[in-house]
Give the backbone structure.
Amino acid sequence: MGKFAEADAAISKISICRRCKSRNKAGMKKCRKCGSVYLRAKKKEIRAKK
């Protein structure tokens, strides 16, 4: 993960909407923006740029 443990803990509590790509709190059942129920957890690993 990253350099800062506090930031990593905050980032891991975020879920992302698969429809509109907005950020939501971890316990949400549906998206705050579009109302979609298709949410995923934020990816934990940092991908390297090509």
